[in-house]
Amino acid sequence: MNPAAPVSSGLGWFGIVRLGLVQSAIGAIVMLATSLLNRVMVVEYALPAAMPAGLVAWHYAVQLSRPVWGHGSDRGRRRTPWIVLGMATLALGALLSVAALGLLAARSGWGFALAVLAFSMIGAGVGAAGTSLLALLATRVVPERRAAAASITWIMMITGIVITAGVAGSLIDPFSLPRLARVAGGVAIGAFVVALLGVWGVEGRSPIAAAGPEGALALGPGPSFGVALREMMADDEARRFTIFVFTSMLAYSMQDLILEPFAGLLFAFTPGQSTQLSGVQHAGVLAGMILVGVGGSAFGKRTPEGMRKWIIGGCIGSAMALAGLAMAARVGAGWPLAANIATLGFANGVFAVAAIGAMMGLAGANGDASGSGGREGIRMGVWGAAQAIAFGLGGLIGAVGVDVGRALTGSAPKTFTIVFGIEALLFLVAASLVLRSGARSAPPVPSLA
């Protein structure tokens, strides 16, 4: 035994902010690969739009490996090495994706192969780093700080995306492939360094290592992946929460690719105006996240019942805002579209952060703040995989739904009314899943602490 090396019982605010830097770094690199490169492929290199869309969908598909990464960090009793490995893989994948551009522009098959490899590494890197980061938060953050921790880390992720977009956008003009490579290299290397500074030393010693060789021997290496996965899915609360994550994130992501076309087709917004409308939505998301971060920790909402209300309120608010957009499709000009979009963003922010806090709570429900539970990684991995599937399908379903609906009905207003109505219904289904989960639990849903 080594009593001189105690394990911290919980992560302080400074430690939470440091881990938020890792989330910022992940967001910065992902923005570079999925947003900037998407535009360059389609506009500067005149590649089919389906190519970057397919690569982005593929990076989500690769994130089905999240449970494997999470289980690996569970068995090793350490999260930091997996975060560092994931960030290195993510950064290298982003650099390879830029290297593939020149070959793609020359219509070389090797360019496509390199791009697939690059986006495979991006998906794997996000899976390894993101899953292990959330598992570390779940094991080190005490329940009363989880709502605020979720808000802080996700606000910092959005901040990282915004800063990177602004800086990279200003440095990339006038465009050339060498200039893009330099900017991408700076972003990737800078993000990796920021992530290292953020995670270095935060985790401390493994609880098992601190307990000495006797404790490690007693606990053993943990069950195999298949056994751990079956044990998790046998847990009624964990299984229901997986369904909730998929349903709610499907509704959340269906709007991503159709809001700006909606504003352009039915309200005659210019590209600049629709982009500003997207900014209004993201401002609403930030406001919702901040509200949950403050209210979830400061106003007596530390109980399972209290956090569950945030989730249900966010889902119902999102459904109402989407119902408003369905009405806007029929009313047209004169509808307060900006206010409606801001409301949708606000409700989305409330729901998203409350759901992330719920993930952290349920992942840590079989352990305490010292991280002795040993199943946080695979739980976060399964929910991350469900979220990745929903995100990949959601954007595709929304966009295809609009195309098919317009072809069948010949009416854009009718089509958008139907699609937004389906999204609203999915949010109501997600809210009902949380309500039913609370009714079946005694005490109510320990995950929503």
SSE layout:
Elements: H1 13-44, H2 50-62, H3 66-76, H4 80-105, H5 109-140, H6 146-171, H7 177-199, H8 207-210, H9 212-219, H10 225-233, H11 236-254, H12 259-267, H13 271-298, H14 304-331, H15 337-363, H16 376-409, H17 412-440
Summarize the structure in words.
The structure is a single chain. This protein is an all-alpha fold. The chain has two domains: 11-222, Growth Hormone, Chain: A (Up-down Bundle); 223-449, Up-down Bundle (Growth Hormone, Chain: A). Helix content is 80%, strand content 0%. It contains 17 helices and no strands. The protein has helices at residues 13-44, 50-62, 66-76, 80-105, 109-140, 146-171, 177-199, 207-210, 212-219, 225-233, 236-254, 259-267, 271-298, 304-331, 337-363, 376-409, 412-440. Helix 1 (13-44) packs parallel to helix 4 (80-105), helix 1 runs antiparallel to helix 7 and helix 2 (50-62) packs across helix 5. The longest helix has 34 residues, at 376-409. Residues 1-8, 207-219, 298-302, 367-372 and 441-449 have low confidence and may be disordered.
